[in-house]
Amino acid sequence: MLKSEQGTAALAIVYLNGRYIPEASATVSVLDRGFIFGDGVYEVIPVFGSHILRFSEHLARLGNSLAGIYLDNPHAEAEWRDIVATLLERNPGAENRSVYLQVTRGAGERGHVPSKALLPTVFAMCNPIPERDYTRGVSAITHEDIRWQYCNIKVTSLLPNVLLRHRAKERDGSTEAILLRGDRVTEGAASNVFVVHGRRVATPPKDHSLLPGITRDLVVDLLRGAKLGCEEAKITRADLVSADELWITSSMMGIAPVTRLDGRPVGQGQPGAVWREADAIYQAFKVKGVGGAAPN
Ligand SMILES: Cc1ncc(COP(=O)(O)O)c(C=O)c1O
Fold this sequence. Notes:
By secondary structure, the protein is of the alpha+beta class. It contains seven helices and 17 strands. It is 27% helix and 29% strand. It has helices spanning 33-37, 55-68, 77-90, 159-172, 214-225, 237-241, 273-288, and strands at 2-3, 9-10, 13-16, 19-22, 40-48, 51-52, 96-104, 121-128, 138-144, 176-181, 184-188, 192-197, 200-203, 231-232, 245-250, 254-261, 264-265. The protein folds into two domains: 2-128, D-amino Acid Aminotransferase, Chain A, domain 1 (2-Layer Sandwich), CATH 3.30.470.10; 138-288, D-amino Acid Aminotransferase, subunit A, domain 2 (D-amino Acid Aminotransferase, Chain A, domain 2). Strands 9, 10, 11, 12, 13, 14, 15, 16 and 17 form a nine-stranded mixed β-sheet that branches. A six-stranded antiparallel β-sheet has the order 4-3-8-7-5-6, sandwiched between helices. A two-stranded antiparallel ribbon has the order 1-2. Residues 44, 187, 190-192, 211, 213-216, 249-251 line the site of pyridoxal-5'-phosphate.
């Protein structure tokens, strides 16, 4: 359900396999491989006012995720753009919205080896993006990265990520689990990680151990376009715990300052000066695409 500006509940319209229908009547087969195996991929695209942030990059990543699980892209880019535009049109109300796109391999007799004859299930929905208050920052825990080896693919099988965020919340009400493979920081359970020492900003380089976050890439571009700069470099546990500032990024959170890590303050225990600079640049860009990298 979407809350309209008047506070009255409006029925959410979702997209399912070519139809725009009320959420309550959108159903898929119990044999859908998304349900049985978590055999699918997804995207979450933020929309600020009328600006769809980094739309092309999200669609490109969706294409890469589909290729990563040996699934043909069911739609050309223009068709995806049309689906998203129509969905936004049919779900007016909130100023800032997210569009969720999901493609699963479709429904068929249960078996590990996927049949090439299946019709993929294509689903999309639109949700308001909640307002964030980062006045006090957010807290995080560190945790061993318990996920698989293809974290660069945005798959719907998110049970490890769900457990990690659950543990973060249970431990001390934390928002995020920052993950390490051995001594190397990879990313958050649903975000990318940036560390700041003095005015030096760094984030781990992209490889199979982390999702190529669209916000991560945008922040790297924006920082490089401004005077700050950003290194893509290996980050160790020692780098993490000695950081003056720690940020996590995602399409839903933007750039969130982490002010407590494993129960201890990060730097001064408050959102830092470099975060304020970076966030101001990001906030300006996200609405209109101004202040650095090219809009789309
Ligand atoms: C594991 C993981 N890493 C990073 C991100 C951030 O990616 P993006 O900035 O594209 O939202 C997400 C987003 O959900 C995620 O699930």
